[in-house]
Amino acid sequence: MFASKAKRRISIATKFNLLTILIILVTSAGISFFLVHNVVSYKYNSLVRHGLVIASMASQTSEYYIYTGDTESMMQLIESLEVDEDVAYVCLFNKEKKQLMHKSFKYGLKIPPAPVTRFIDCSPQGKILYKEFFNKENGNRYIDILSPVIIFADKKPTDILVDNQKGINPEIAGYVQVGLSLENLHKRIKQFLISALAFTSFFIMVGVILTLFLTKRITAPLKKLNSATKNISEGIFEQHVNVHTNDEISDFAGAFNHMVERLRVYRDQLRHTAFHDPLTNLPNRNLFMERLERLIEHAKRDKNCAFSVLFLDLDRFKVVNDSLGHLAGDKLLVLIAQKLEECLRKSDTVARFGGDEFAILLDNVDDDFNAKFVAERILEILKDPFVLDGHRIVVSASIGIVLKGEFYNRPEDILRDADTTMYRAKMNGKARYAVFNTEMHASAMNFLQLEADLWHAIERSELVIYYQPIVSLTRDEIVGLESLIRWQHPQRGLILPDEFIPLAEETRMIDKIGHWVIQKACAQNKVWHDMGFSNITITVNVSVLQLRHRELPDQVRATIKSTGLPAGAFKLEITESTVMESRELVLEIFKELNDMKIQLMMDDFGIGFSSIHSLKNLPFSTLKIDRSLISDIAMNPDASAIVKAIIDMARSLKIKVIAEGVETQRQLELLRLYQCDYIQGYLFYSPMKAEEITNILRQRNKPASDTNSDITREFITLWGEN
Ligand code: C2E
Ligand code: CA
Ligand code: CA
Q1: What pLDDT score was predicted for residue 1?
Q2: Tens-digit pLDDT profile for residues 418-462
Q3: What is the CATH number of the domain that holds 358?
């Protein structure tokens, strides 16, 4: 829009120069014109006056000679006028206007036959007339002057000369004609004009030089300021405008420099904020990525460039936040950031990516200083407890390492692989590091594909529930069924929950899937109840995230209502580690579920560190001893001692015990010996589809006469109620 209107750019200096030169020209032209005009007219007038004086003197002198007819004296008079270089010719006439004599002083100049001025205009009062004319023959201009020769009737001409008295009755005795040449005048004017021109040129030259000098003094600093402003608009703040003119421009430059200085400070602050984590003041993800990208580029050019990337995630940092509060969590992060920096060289970068995630970039790695060495050092220094508000806190971290960053093309890829590897370290048991290999990448890709498929699994009815019977040792009957989800993947076949439940948890699909399991399991148990197996309690595993997202109680309430299953025939299994991590949350959820008469079971008991005390204060009716302990009891006396202790303790607290993962007869014998209440495991039954369970129930369980059978009640007895 502006381009069409854009005029040709004229710089300030050009405008300023043009204006000043114009002023100088106009002034000098005005002055010269005025001078020339005055001088020329003055010279012309003085020449005319000069001619008039000559003519008047000649007419007075010749008065007597004309009167007496003395031609010789007349000639002498005429010749005496030759000395005046302006006089070109002289003529004398008698009163009858007849030429008496004449003389031309210019070579070849013809005297006009009659005076240019007319005789008739000459009066006896002595009026002298003149007129300028152009002589075509020699191309010169002349002034022709005609002066009357006056005599007085009452006096002789000599008397007039002697006593100088004013005569009376004048009359014309003749005429004197004098021709003045303008040649000399023209020459003189020409000379004057030349010197005037030279003077004016000199004046203009001086003016122009002065203007240029002045312009330079005014516009040079402006130019400097202009280019400095352009630089700023392009983001170049590292500059200083040097102007020392002792005037407003100098003030302007000073203010400008000050402004640039402040802008620079703001820019640096802004840059710092944009590239640093406000809590720890470490570089943030953006800066890390920028440096990583630069290093990748460098590695492409320099084959000796070797660098590694570490991705670090604190283990169970959430516990610190939840138990000591976010402020303490923040303080801990700052302390950890300091410790990480201590482990590195100045040239390395440690960045915080947010939360409890850190990334480290090691440049110039070699045999001595390499990623594994740094990871070991970090794990080692983290072992020292941190003291926070009087609490001693031990943190650990899981670290993923990409050893050869130089083989990558994109920073995101390095980070992705370091992240994947960090997960591997976590899965391998936390507080350790893992080094990336390509197999990990494949499994990560697999994970992504699986995630995409999982979104559709429910709609496509690919999810199925298997049920694993729980047998009562005292009644020798199936009293419960654990719901275990599986995914019938169209390409990959049956996928077990350990493979996709973590994925569902990460993507929040767990709420939807968990809800589906609750609905399915409850409906299925209602079917079995209706078949007469009303002593069967169904259990459903819930993830800690389902508890956190708070949708669980409503989901259970709605399902119990819609299926019509008695609340006592449904239980939730919560792992010991979930209980330990989120005690408050479990208590809250328990209260809500308790109102609906739904009970909780502690799953995978014995591998966490629940104290007897905490168990006593938690509202669990049943606990399930973890498979790993059960599998050891036949061989490991410690394991069997622990299992026995757990069973004894539970009995004293009136909590029922299930042993899971029972695979051998020997294990069963021991558990029977320890008076374990219920058994679950391959020894009796593997998880099976609902139809198979129906067949087994028909063979093994007698349909109960009423829904409140002893066994069911025994199984669901709430600790403390009896
Ligand atoms: P879990 O709660 O500990 O479930 C018991 C697991 O042990 C099941 O594995 C079961 O098949 C297996 N098992 C049973 N008896 C034996 C035995 O004698 N020997 C051995 N070696 N294993 C036995 P599964 O079905 O693969 O489930 C794995 C885990 O997935 C479960 O561990 C549970 O934590 C989780 N899970 C299963 N279904 C769901 C669900 O619907 N929601 C949630 N949130 N988690 C689920
Ligand atoms: Ca379970
Ligand atoms: Ca278990």
Answers
A1: 42
A2: 999 999 999 888 899 999 988 887 877 787 788 889 999 988 999
A3: 3.30.70.270
DSSP secondary structure code for residue 464 in this structure: E
Within 302-437, where are the H helices?
Answer: 317-324, 326-342, 371-382, 411-427
CATH number at residue 112: 3.30.450.20
Q: Which among 130, 163, 188 is the end of a domain?
A: 188
Residue to substitute in 486, 494, 541, 663 for testing ligand 1 pocket (most ligand atoms within 8 angstroms of CB) = 541
Closest CA to 216 of 254, 251, 249, 252: 249
| Binding-site residues, ligand 1, Cβ < 6 A | 468, 483-485, 496-498, 501, 514, 517, 541-543, 573, 603-604, 627, 661-663, 681-682, 687
Question: By CB neighbour count within 10 A (0-12 exposed, 13-18 middle, 19+ buried), where does 445 fall?
Answer: exposed
Indicate the number of domains in the chain: 3
pTM more than 0.90: no
User: Is the distance from CB of 585 to CB of 562 less than 8 angstroms?
Assistant: no
Nearest CA to ligand 1 atom 4: 484
Q: How far is the CA of 484 from the centre of ligand 1 (A)?
A: 6
Each residue's pLDDT tens digit, 94-140: 888 888 888 888 776 777 666 777 777 776 677 888 888 888 777 88
Burial of 519 from C-beta contacts in 10 A (0-12 / 13-18 / 19+): middle
Give a yes or no: residue 3 inside a domain: no
